[in-house]
Write a structure and sequence with these properties.
Distance between the termini: 72 Å
Number of domains: 2
Order of helices and strands: HHHHHHHHHHHHEEEEHEEEHH
CATH superfamily of the largest domain: Hypothetical protein, domain 2
CATH architecture of the largest domain: Orthogonal Bundle
Strand content: 5-15%
């Protein structure tokens, strides 16, 4: 049975808790580029990049992004294609599109100055309660608690909370507890300290309880069952889709299409194609999908290969084919733009990772594309 949750200073030794946590953070915090610059722009960009992405992966992207687009004005003035190219490989591209849209909104509505109220920040595309609280507490010193996966894990173990944090009830409960524990004198450092503790010490699989500054306060450490927390909600089976794409050749060039901005991976370039329907072969599907997306006719000549790729909520098997253009001029029926390019130009465009895995096989057109009609 978990101890009654801390809702006032009488329930929990808050001063000791704050002192231990902040002293540990001062000694042990990682030297990260966005911590050297607490401006709202730097904190905002880093927090968006860190969503669903590990710190070590974010660092080079953050540094490159800030070099090319060092402020809100530069980001707002940039073309979306540049933003997506800087983001290429980081994944979850809606983050980049929302970042770009938010910068333009800030430029129009706030004179390129990042807003400082929860109401205004929450209206920006791609910014939810967590990100808003992080920016406002770290950059503006506002008394707002940050709740993320690391924070939830620390609190679930600290008080042996049986409610899964991802459940509807759990989200409200953990938010309430986080608010009750916030250090109002140092909200930015406190939030970063709690997140850092979850990232470095109170890890999901191998918590280092002996190194934890909160060890003597932690109920899970006392009961030696930290691995049992946080409680998990049952996972749903992840769907799997079969997808077929075509590398369409004409005059030694290949066709690429830009995804609609509101679609998944919107704004990225790709080889035209789509899901294989029931009763269809991948070869049949690629011809149909190309026709529906671009309005041209082509025929599948040879298979390039298969690629397995996983997304957060589903996975795919991508079947790729060399295709020959037979008639029609490309149109934007199911895409926002189309271009014929040389294979050497592929690296100039931002592609989803599943598509970019094909690049190594496309640097030279297939023999039949050089010689003309293969007669099939």
């Amino acid at each position: 049975m978990a101890k009654p949750l801390p809702l006032s200073n009488a329930d929990f030794p808050l001063p000791e808790y704050h002192q231990r946590l902040l002293a540990w953070y001062e000694r042990e915090n990682r030297d990260l580029p966005w911590r050297r610059d607490r401006t709202p722009y730097a904190v905002w960009v880093s927090e968006i990049m860190l969503q669903q992405t590990q710190v070590r992966s974010v660092i080079p992207y953050f540094q490159r992004f800030m070099q090319v687009l060092p402020g809100i004005t530069e980001l707002a003035d940039a073309d979306l294609s540049l933003v997506l190219k800087l983001w290429e490989g980081l994944g979850y591209y809606a983050r980049a599109r929302n970042l770009h849209a938010a910068a333009r909104q800030i430029a129009q509505e706030h004179g390129s100055r990042f807003p400082s109220t929860m109401q205004s920040v929450s209206r920006l595309p791609g910014i939810g309660p967590y990100t808003a609280a992080a920016i406002l507490s770290i950059s503006f010193g506002q008394k707002l608690a940050v709740v993320d996966g690391n924070v939830n894990r620390v609190l679930a173990r600290l008080f042996r909370i049986d409610t899964p944090p991802r459940s509807h009830q759990g989200k409200k409960l953990f938010a309430r507890i986080s608010d009750s524990l916030l250090d109002g004198d140092n909200p930015g450092d406190y939030n970063q300290a709690l997140m850092e503790l979850g990232a470095l010490v109170c890890q999901p699989r191998n918590p280092d309880c002996h190194a934890c500054p909160l060890n003597s306060l932690c109920l899970a450490a006392r009961h030696r069952d930290p691995h049992d927390y946080p409680r998990k909600t049952p996972k749903r089976p992840r769907p799997h889709h079969i997808v077929a794409v075509g590398v369409i050749w004409r005059d030694k060039k290949l066709l690429i299409a830009r995804r609609l901005e509101k679609a998944m991976l919107g704004g990225l370039w790709e080889f035209p194609g789509g899901k294989v329907e029931t009763g269809e072969t991948p070869q049949e599907a690629v011809v149909r999908e190309i026709r529906e997306e671009t309005g041209i006719e082509c025929r599948s000549i040879e298979k390039i290969g298969e690629i397995e790729h996983g997304y957060t909520h589903f996975s795919i098997t991508l079947h790729a084919f060399h295709c020959q253009h037979t008639s029609g001029e490309p149109q934007t029926l199911g895409c926002s733009d189309v271009r014929w390019i040389c294979p050497s130009e592929l690296e100039d465009y931002a592609f989803p990772r599943a598509n970019s895995k094909l690049f190594v096989k496309l640097q030279h057109p297939p023999t039949w594309a050089l010689e003309g009609d293969p007669g099939v």
